[in-house]
Amino acid sequence: MKIRDMLRQNKFTLSFEVFPPKREGNVESLYSTVDNLIRCNPHFISVTYGAGGSTRDKTVEIASHIKNEHGQEVLAHLTCVGTTRHDIGRILDDLKDKHLENILALRGDPPQGKDVFMKTKGGFGYANELVEFIKEHDDFCIGVAGYPEKHLEAPSMAADMENLKRKVDAGGNFIITQLFFINDVFHRFRDLAVNRKISVPIIPGIFPLFNYSQISRIGSLCDPAIPSQLLDKLYKVRDKNEEVQKYGIEHAIRQCEDLLSNEVSGLHFCCMNKSDHVLEIVRQLSIPTQKTTSADEYY
Ligand SMILES: Cc1cc2nc3c(=O)[nH]c(=O)nc-3n(C[C@H](O)[C@H](O)[C@H](O)COP(=O)(O)OP(=O)(O)OC[C@H]3O[C@@H](n4cnc5c(N)ncnc54)[C@H](O)[C@@H]3O)c2cc1C
Question: Can you give the pTM of this predicted structure?
Fold first, then answer.
């Protein structure tokens, strides 16, 4: 089912993001995580596309397995990195053959070892061009990325908002945001989008921290502001993963409660291929899941 139709019908989606494991042997472990995630009836699971296009085939293969073997709707990420129009056309045909209807269309980050994104000859320079191409190719449902704290390369929030508008006007059906830890940045971003007449659903991206080293890794990717009180607490327990996870869960729950009371279009959890912490968060929240199962039934 297309995510745009789910959003139209339910006005809310619960979703989880997983990534293709680097080692072949770890795919079975990913599928067992997926089985756990499915127990709380998400609307879809998204599968990332490795930096530099490194997991291109695996993304399609894993998304197809989740949809066709586990019976769970999926969103396949797709980037422009190292790819020509012709390559993208072939990937789109493959997605269609495998009954995959939802794509998150991204420009992508530079491949490892490169500082800047370089357009491939015969490829695309920005995500809005990819959105346009996908839309012309077939009737896929297309998601795009939004940045509550501005994309790192954008000269200003206004310029980044113009870009978001361009992606939506090109055919983006919904927006999933970059992770953030301070809800005010999301609320401001959503207000700016409304002012810019961006009317598609905006789904906030939530990253529940579960170990201390994630803070610097996330910082190098998108540099989100983190509340100093949370940072202090995490620093004090930096060597104790269980304690870090406890604070990470607490913070994510507080974020989600506020977002739910502000009528967000969904919650999209980056779960880093683990299920326990996100399932605990979902259990503690009153989230409208795909089936109207009471929260306790999945445990
Ligand atoms: C929810 C989510 C999921 C993601 N999943 C993945 C993934 O699976 N794989 C992966 O590699 N990366 C992923 N990313 C990261 C993403 O690829 C990077 O943030 C990338 O740097 C930008 O991608 P984009 O699609 O937002 O690019 P774009 O929308 O093209 O924007 C890139 C930059 O160019 C600027 N810009 C856009 N159009 C123009 C224009 N016409 N003129 C001038 N400037 C312009 C924008 O303001 C921005 O600064 C994800 C990000 C998010 C938020």
Answer: 0.96
